[in-house]
Amino acid sequence: MSTRTQNIKVLMFGWEFPPFNSGGLGVACQGLTRGLTRQGVEILFVLPKIHGALNEDYMRILSAESFNKKVGKITFKAVDSILKPYMSSKNYRLEITGLEAFMGEAKDIYGSDLFSEVRRYSAHAKNIALHEDYNVIHCHDWLTFPAGIVAKKMAELRGLKTSLITHVHATEFDRTGGIPNQYVYDIEKVGMHHADYIITVSEYTKNIVTKHYGIDPKKVHVVHNSIDFSENGTEEEFKIKKHYKTVLFLGRMTIQKGPDHFLWIAKRISELDDNVRFIMVGSGDMSRYIVEEAANMGIGDKVLFSDFLNGRDVDRAYRMADVYVMSSISEPFGITALEAMKNHTPVVISKQSGVSEILKNCLVADFWDVNLMADKILSVLYNPELRNQLLEEGLKEIRKFSWDRPANQCIEIYKRALAGC
Question: Hey, is 261 helix, strand or coil?
Fold first, then answer.
């Protein structure tokens, strides 16, 4: 590791971290920080809540509310917070209501709405920024952008030379299917315009940022996500595979991920082949609708549902499938495609995804082209030559992936920031 890298101290704001995560944002944060710290970067990672002992000894992980003004230091203290990276205003209200029914004082502890809770988090970020040692501020997605802006202002008051980097893993246009919440959009836009550098996880996302947020393309740097390859354990036999071909959907049940499109694909395949079963893993605001819609479409007996999975259960789900399908209508990146290939599972992915920019050994189609998606899936299931090619070449390709590459790209941005470029 270089001495220049050792002198990089990053104050990083994020909203989740495995094993306490609800989606790809936490996985990306974990992978990137591992890659950065392998290169000698020092990271102070700030979370709104620590749910338990996190087994990551290569950096400090702190609760935003654990700051002790009297002694001027960060302490490891778990403080209640119900903020989550994919939380909507509606979901926040529901959780507040549930907590009030349980403890009777939720609004006294948390913000009265999602946005006041974000501001409350920013207030704690202000205290951290006033006392910690750092020279780069790195924020992941919109919930942390206000905290990053406040942290930079505090650094300036201290006479510290710092740069603000906003890391865009998804935009409000992705999450809402192109109909953004104005308040969230405004926070995103303000955060991007205050940033010295913007990182997007794909060219696809960069185009959205420049088109819809009025950002100079020269300010935006594309850093694709990655995966650290490792060999899986012993092969496991799944009973369902003895009788049926299996197709997997794994992701949040939200409009962004296209679970309804996956059902239409399943319906089309079922009309052509009765020997295929479909597994849908995930939770979200569309969960109930998707279950009911499967029944309404007459394929309720062919679709198996599972709630959100984590850890080894995710790997088992991939290995259970003959093909993994990512039907997202707008996918900034799509780490799940890499995870599937790592587990020796061929993938068919949406053309409207960032991961399609870097993967070669996969099949790609527009999310809305149900017939073409179905044809590609059936080709993987019943064309041994194609399937073997995707498996063998895909495994060779995924072995070359590492979080060191995106980490080094971030380090170059850090160095430019420190040099005042």
Answer: helix
